[in-house]
Every structure is written in C-alpha cells, then in structure tokens.
Design brief:
Helix content: 25-40%
Order of helices and strands: HEEHEHEHHEEHHEHEHEEHHHHHH
CATH topology of the largest domain: D-Maltodextrin-Binding Protein, domain 2
Bound molecules: spermidine
Radius of gyration: 20 Å
Structural class: alpha/beta
Distance between the termini: 42 Å
C-alpha cells in the first residue's frame, strides 16, 4: 500500500463520519472566486482540488450528498448557489428535462476530445450537450473473505438469515429496488406493476436480515468487521479494501447496475466559467488518471487509460468484461413510472 493510499484511507473514513461535510479544499487558501461543488463523498483526490485552486487563483468548496434523490430534493427545496454537480445520468436526464442545467460551451472544454467514445456511444447525452461523464460506477456486493460461509455472487445473499444484522443495503431507491428486480430476473427499469410488487415482497423478506439501509457507514462497518456483507459501489469498496485486506467485491451473477455520475453546471451558476475550467481540468488525461488511481472509480477518459497502473488496468470490476456489461443495466429516467418505485420504497421503509 502506498503512503498516498494509506493517507487517503484515513481521510475518507474521517470524511465519512459526517453525513455531509463542507470544507474549503484549500483549507485556508487565499481569496478569489469560490467554486461551489455539490458531489458524493470521497469522490475526488484532495490534492487535485488544491492544484486547481492554485492554478486558477480560486477556492473550491465541496458539499456532499448521499443519493441522487437527496440532491435533487435539496435543490428543489431552494438550495442554490452551486456551480457544479455530479448526479448520475438518469437524474441528469430528469434535471435537463426540467431546465435545471446549463448547455455546456465546448470552446472552453478542449479536453472533451479525450472522453472515451465507446462510453459516449452508450451515454444518454452522447454529444455532451449539458453533461460530461465523470466516473463510471459499478454496484455490487462486498464481503469479508473467510467470514461468510458459502458465499455466492448473487443478490439472493441478502436473504441469508444466518447473516442477520451483519449486512447492509444501499439507502438508494433505484439501486436497492434494482437489486431486487435483478434477483428476480427483471429489468432495473421495469414499469410493470406486478414485477415491482414482487420486488417489494422480496425486499420486505430481506429487510429483517439487514442492519440498515445506508450509503456511507457501510464502508467503515465493513473495514472494521461490524458488517460482513454489504451492497455498495466498486470504488468505495476498493477504498475500504486498503483498510482491510479481507474485503472482496463481486458483481452478482444475475447482473448489476452500472452508473455514470456526470459533471453538470446548474442553471443560475454564478461561476459557470470556473465550472467549465474545472470540468476541463478533470479531463486532462494525467489528472483523470491520478483521480482514478486515488478514488478507484474509472474516469471514462480514453487517453488516461494508458497512464493507469497495471493493478487498475487489470481490475475486472473497474474495466468490465463485455459479458458483464451485457447482463447489466444503466438506470434510466422512467418519467411518471418513478411513482411506482417510490411506492415500493415507502413500503419497504415502513415495513418491520
Ligand atoms: N463515494 C462515491 C459514490 C458514488 C456513487 N455514485 C452513485 C451512483 C448511483 N447509481
């Protein structure tokens, strides 16, 4: 483990202790304009933020959210003042449809030439009109090797009563309902009410086995051995693996959810120019590679791939096999049918 990695491990645990943190990345850096970024926790190498601040004579203020829905609800409730957000693509579609995002000025974004065209061919906003892919996220199951008997790479592990109280699932409606749908062989984007009712029954059956539904504490809980098996995101799990070498990550055999969190500039940003400069900076190939090596999510910047170390290049949960892509899905904005998912989610939350 390198010094930088060990240092980050401690940093991410410290950051994860708060549900949300707000800091000026320069930690006392000078004046200048402030770029306000609203993003997921542990999602950028702090040194890169400091480098950007130095290069642009500005300060970067990071505020974190735990789910797309929480971020969206906060913005809808009137929280303003952000200059850059990183929602997942389905939420980008929803926000774009509601006029919440700026059209990007490609003249300010020459590094978009490095974005992976293979990814763009699958992306909802393949022309990068209002969003630029930031990180690809693979959802899976993490567990402690040697502590879970008869480990099977399957969503059905959450039905295992012998692991009662030692497992968590994500507090993320589309992810968790999606996991149950996948376990049943259905699409994570189904709008079929019967399929969703089956998923609801399955989740309610699993619920007594779960210590909780949440998106941050599972990392520390897995590292410490409090939890033996968790539903989580690949990069977060690889960060945790630096703290505990027994941590393993698997993509369930039924398939999984692949997301891309995108860089978007909200309409009304007071620092849209600086936000474009930050997007462009994050897609400088050396910066993209350094960020990926640190946070363990893949920035889909093709030029950066050759700059990654063999461990990252050879990680099949970061560079996915085409076969895994084939049995997995990307969450789509399903419009009015979202209400069906909200109903399942509410019933799951209120179930014993
Ligand atoms: N700590 C970073 C977590 C990023 C998770 N992105 C979530 C994608 C949701 N589908």
């Amino acid at each position: 483990m390198s010094i930088a990695r060990g240092g980050f491990g401690r940093a991410f645990i410290a950051c994860s202790l708060g549900a949300a943190f707000f800091f000026t990345a320069g930690c006392g850096g000078g004046g200048g304009p402030v770029l306000r970024v609203y993003t997921w926790s542990d999602y950028i190498k702090p040194e890169l933020v400091r480098r950007f601040e130095r290069e642009h004579g500005c300060r970067v203020a990071l505020d974190t959210f735990e789910s797309n829905e929480a971020m969206y609800a906060k913005l809808k409730a009137g929280a303003g003042g952000y200059d850059l957000l990183t929602p997942s693509s389905y939420m980008v579609s929803l926000m774009h449809g509601q006029g919440m995002l700026m059209t990007l000025d490609h003249a300010l974004l020459p590094n978009l030439a490095h974005v992976d065209p293979d990814y763009l061919a699958r992306a909802v906003d393949g022309a990068m009109d209002h969003s630029v892919p930031y990180m690809l996220v693979v959802t899976g199951i993490a567990y402690l090797e040697g502590r879970v008997r008869d480990m099977t790479p399957s969503w059905t592990m959450f039905g295992r009563a012998d692991l009662r109280g030692r497992m968590t699932m994500l507090n993320d409606m589309r992810e968790t309902v999606g996991a149950a749908l996948k376990a049943l062989g259905y699409s994570i984007n189904t709008t079929n009410g019967d399929e969703l009712r089956e998923a609801e029954r399955l989740l309610i059956e699993w619920k007594p086995n779960l210590a909780k539904l949440e998106n941050e504490q599972y990392k520390i809980g897995l590292a410490s051995g409090e939890f033996l098996l968790v539903h989580g995101w690949n990069g977060d799990v690889f960060q945790v693996a630096q703290e505990n070498p027994e941590v393993r990550f698997v993509v369930p055999e039924e398939g999984t959810i692949i997301s891309c969190d995108d860089l978007v500039v909200p309409a009304g940003s007071a620092q849209a120019g600086l936000a474009h400069a930050f997007i462009n900076f994050l897609h400088e190939p050396r910066v993209a590679a350094e960020n990926t090596e640190f946070i363990h999510y893949l920035c889909p910047n093709r030029t950066s791939y050759d700059l990654l170390g063999p461990e990252t290049r050879g990680n099949p949960s970061i560079f996915l096999d085409p076969e895994v892509w084939a049995r997995s899905e990307v969450i789509a904005d399903i419009g009015a049918a979202n209400a069906l998912y909200v109903r399942v989610w509410d019933r799951l939350k209120s179930a014993k």
